[in-house]
Automatic annotation (TrEMBL):
Coiled coil: none annotated. PANTHER family: METAL-SULFUR CLUSTER BIOSYNTHESIS PROTEINS YUAD-RELATED (PTHR36930), MOSC DOMAIN-CONTAINING PROTEIN (PTHR36930:SF1). It comes from Cryobacterium lactosi. This is MOSC domain-containing protein. PROSITE patterns: MOSC. SUPFAM superfamilies: PK beta-barrel domain-like (SSF50800). The lineage of its organism: Bacteria, Bacillati, Actinomycetota, Actinomycetes, Micrococcales.
Length: 184
């Protein structure tokens, strides 16, 4: 993977309430150490409904959810109707294989914002409540017995900035050993 890999922002979404889908908006502001301004998942400590019950002081490694738009095309070919924001992502991208990025990758979004990749999203049962069978399309076991997750990646905001559709996305790979993404 090239350190100069670039893509683009296809859509941005946020919601101030804990709902499954997030409405698409014209732009979002990423705030360092906090997440997406005005989003229910923003905060220095976890805001995930399940994790907040089990460990409310846990650092929030899921401040920003990113999903590649190419997945939406793949899902449509399987008979699902999913558009940007509907899987709860804050940023829908195009042109970058997000799931192939190593842990610690820095994503430069727009003119200023930087997000550090912390891991993969693990699809939960809420996905099947949104559309029956969708969880199986986003998480399954391959022929080699490995679990394949496609529901996007999570990150933390390192540098604040505005992000909008059409903005550039640039990948900065971490120095040294490149570790695969785990689940956060």
């Amino acid at each position: 993977m090239s350190e100069q890999q670039t893509g683009m922002i296809a859509a941005v979404s946020r919601d101030d309430k804990h709902r499954f889908s997030k409405p698409v908006v014209a732009g979002i502001r990423l705030v360092a150490g906090h997440g997406v301004e005005g989003d229910s998942h923003a905060g220095a400590t976890t805001q995930h409904r399940y994790l907040i019950r089990t460990d409310p002081a846990r650092a929030n490694l899921t401040q920003v959810h990113l999903l590649r738009s190419e997945l939406l095309t793949e899902l449509a070919a399987e008979g699902f109707d999913v558009s940007p924001g509907q899987l709860g992502e804050n940023i829908t991208t195009t042109g970058i294989d997000l799931l192939a990025l190593p842990l610690g990758t820095r994503l430069h979004l727009g003119a200023e914002a930087v997000v550090e990749v912390t891991g993969m999203r693990d699809p939960c049962s809420m996905i099947d409540k949104f559309q029956s069978g969708l969880k199986g399309a986003l998480k399954h076991t391959d022929a080699a017995g490995r679990i394949v997750r496609k529901a996007g990646i999570m990150g933390i905001v390192l540098v604040s900035g505005e992000v909008a559709p059409g903005d550039d996305l640039r990948v900065e790979l971490p120095a040294g050993e490149q570790l695969p993404l785990g689940v956060v």
